[in-house]
Fold this protein.
Amino acid sequence: MVAWPLRQLGAGLLALAAAPAAATALVVRPHWRAGLGERLGLRTPAVDRPVWVHGASVGEILAAIRLVDALGQRGHAVLASAMRPSGRAVLAQMRPDVPRRLAPIDHPWCVARALDQVAPAALVLVETELWPSWIAAAERRGVPVAVVSARISDRSFGRYQRIGVLVRRTLGRLSAVGARTAEDARRFAALGVPEDRLEITGDLKLEPPLALPTLEPELDRALGNLTVWVAASTHASEEEAALHALSAAEAAGIATALILAPRYPVERAAEVKRVVAAQGRRVRLRSRLAGDVPLAPGEVLLLDSLGELPAVIARAQLAFVGGSLVPVGGHNVVEPALVSRPALFGPHTHKVRDAAALLLASGGARRVSDETELAAAVIEWLRNPAAAKDAGEAARRALESHRGATQRCLALVERLLDDGRAHVSPD
């Protein structure tokens, strides 16, 4: 009986201690003020007892949308949330009819306000969104919490093992875990999730779509009939590597244009535009496309929009996936495979190790060590469209084993809803 007042006292002291730093951050970074009410647990769309589905950012939201659609088709009310504004923007663009918000700050007061306003029937977290205060507050309200497409990276597993007691308490509050792979399931079990709450549902990101995404007419006209390739989710210095590959392709006599889709495209658009312009190339912004003038060979289209990357890759001949030539760990290397396109990525793929290995084994992807190898691989696949097509189709076939992940995740959530109760773990 004493535990709850002590938690409230601790939450108050934490908020008081963090207040000066938070106030300074809002002054220094004004864009953090956007959605502040939602972050504090306020301004929630009115939805009657929804299934609350949450993902971190764009990649997780694109995966979560599949489950959101499946829940909606089964007649369940849904509220979706993202940790980053870019994720919420993708929700607004791709599923404007789905109520959405930013996730609350993982502070007891903020998550309590949000949960009291939403009163969800269940909380579904995608991949690794393991927020202790949020999960604990849901448990206290009898709201079942599931993690689907659940994964634990090598780095996170080691870190969680070092803080075992805290992690075990949080994971012990989960009602169900739908792991991506047997190895992910093993790691969740080792960290304290009871085996009767564990199952393997597969990876939502790896499930091939039933139909290819289509380009907006304006973007379709801009690309015309030119052979294009994509450098996706790039970080600083990877844009330069892609531009080097473009120059090498030109020197090899290939008429092509590059589509640059940097990581955090809205925030980094101005920076990437300067990088391209510094090399004397004409750069066109997706957000400012006008008229019917198609992209010319040697030009760069900067994709400073959200939610259009899958359709752009489907239109291209191949894609390089960033966060891999630099030690970030790799981004969504299967995105090209989902639309039957071959992928290139660098040596740093520890965050997407299993997916990278799957694609490499299929022949649908190649690993390059630096910008020189990237240029050589780009040239080879641009010169041999039939070989690129075969590689892309092999990559998509490699994903077929994950077909059905959405339906397995849906079944897991519906079982929790049918049970109508959450597991209550001891304090």
Q: What stands out?
A: Residues 38-207+404-419 form a domain with the Rossmann fold fold (CATH 3.40.50.11720).
